[in-house]
Design a protein that fits this description.
By secondary structure, this protein is an alpha+beta fold. Helices cover 22% and strands 19% of the residues. Among the domains are: 72 residues, no CATH class; 236 residues, Jelly Rolls.
């Protein structure tokens, strides 16, 4: 922010409460209350009303016009704002324990990379690719998008359809042609779409994503994970993307609700590299907090949402803590800023590392004679963090009721199953002695 703008903002009326906070805090509050407006518009209104949050907010609520004419940043780009601590900054991640800033029923908006990696299990790199390469990849995916499908799934006896479209890609041409692999993925719970071979531009970018993600994983381990070591069940090997799930959100209303990604082929403590192209959208995360035995809401602060703004050409790395301990979503928007090339579309590539040893030729089958899915108990305190194989047949469209079968998974400290060469012995043990047969949470959780 330039000196002239800073001076104007300091002229705000001195009132108790929010008016005493710094500019970044006011902008974050405006973003939370008026998500249909861009950060540039929030700043314009704050400047026009001399830095007064209340006046700017009231004007935003009652007007559809911008108060001043000012040069906008590139369409679809969400500028980063260093918000997350009220003093305007954050200490080094290795020197202070991050305090939870979320509150139940509220959404905290984070923009700056340091704030995002301090308060969520994610890290973000803006302007990830050279502009020409990002546009070439975006155009390739736009050309592919008419072949995308809306996946369907079943829950509580009802068949539902995804709000957005998607397609599943494998890097290996042999895997795409393999009838067994093709049949398995076609019947998969969330990936019920035709298989395709990874496109040329996607494959080029995958090598860049691989290098960046591995550096981020190493940095995350050093700066944020206990004792600078890998987590229990986290793979010690380098992350090698070999598959990708590409989502297309066409317009402000297309979205996906809170969920954790399926671990069946990724294994425990999975890492995912997510590249956003086109329209900027809001990626929300929420920590999973098990209810206390007495139903206490003392941990309600951890149940609020955090919104991470994903502009065009940004890479979000979801680290090893993400899938087991958090849920994520793409929230509907009241409006969006069209992108020059993608117009109203957001294309998102989630680069994934599928494990050969978790192919369904190896994994357990249930009484339905269907390959079981790998899940982690998330809500029940007594079994939280344990992995299990479970029948999920009734979550597939056009399927019958599942058999209800589940078995606790045998996984070593590196997340490897018994049939893996070098298996070190089962580390997926009960937290409470004698709890081996304790049934986990219901599938609706």
């Amino acid at each position: 922010m330039d000196e002239h703008r800073t001076k104007r903002l300091k002229q705000a009326e001195e009132q108790p409460g929010i008016e005493d906070e710094d500019t970044d805090f006011k902008l974050a509050m405006l973003a939370s209350l008026h998500p249909d407006r861009s950060s540039d518009v929030h700043l314009d209104y704050l400047l026009a009303y001399g830095g007064s949050y209340e006046k700017a907010s009231a004007a935003l609520a009652g007007s559809s016009e911008e108060p001043t004419k000012r040069k906008r940043v590139a369409i679809g780009y969400q500028s980063a704002l260093n918000f997350g601590a009220r003093d305007g900054g954050l200490s080094s991640p290795s020197t202070v324990q991050a305090k939870s800033l979320t509150k139940k029923g509220q959404t905290l908006h984070l923009y700056a990379p340091m704030d995002i990696e301090t308060h969520t299990p994610c890290s973000i790199i803006h302007n990830f690719l050279p502009a020409s390469q990002a546009n070439a990849l975006l155009q390739e995916l736009l050309d592919e998008s008419p072949t995308f499908k809306r996946g369907s799934f079943q829950i509580f006896g009802r068949t539902l359809q995804n709000n957005s479209t998607f397609k599943f890609y494998l890097d290996s041409p042999e895997a795409v042609r393999n009838e067994q692999t093709k049949a398995f993925y076609s019947d998969s719970i969330y990936e019920s779409t035709a298989l395709a071979e990874t496109t040329p531009e996607m494959l080029k970018v995958a090598h860049i994503v691989k290098e960046t993600v591995n550096k981020e994983v190493e940095r995350r381990m050093r700066d944020y994970q206990p004792d600078g070591k890998k987590l229990k069940f986290q793979s010690p090997e380098d992350w090698e993307p070999n598959a990708s799930f590409v989502n297309c959100y066409d317009g402000a209303k297309e979205s996906v609700g809170f969920h954790s990604d399926q671990l069946t082929y990724l294994g425990p403590r999975a890492v995912i590299g997510s590249l956003s192209l086109g329209v900027a959208r809001e990626f929300r995360v929420r920590k999973i907090v098990p209810p206390s035995e007495d139903g206490s809401t003392a941990q309600a602060d951890e149940q609020g949402q955090i919104a991470i703004h994903l502009p065009h050409n940004s890479l979000l790395v979801m680290h090893a803590e993400m899938q087991e301990e958090w849920k994520h979503s793409i929230a509907p928007a009241k409006s969006i800023d069209p992108h020059p090339l993608a117009l109203n579309k957001r294309l998102n590539i989630t680069y994934r590392c599928y494990k050969d040893y978790l192919h369904p030729i190896h994994t357990p089958k249930c009484k339905c004679n269907v390959a079981m899915v790998l899940r982690c108990v998330q809500k029940r305190a007594a079994t939280r963090g344990r992995y299990m194989w479970q029948c999920f047949a009734n979550y597939q469209a056009d399927s019958k009721k599942d058999c209800g079968m589940f078995v606790w998974a045998d996984l070593d400290e590196d997340g490897k199953p018994p049939w893996f060469d070098g298996y070190k012995g089962n580390a997926n043990l009960p937290l409470i002695a004698g709890d081996e047969q304790h049934r986990p949470e219901s599938k609706s959780e």
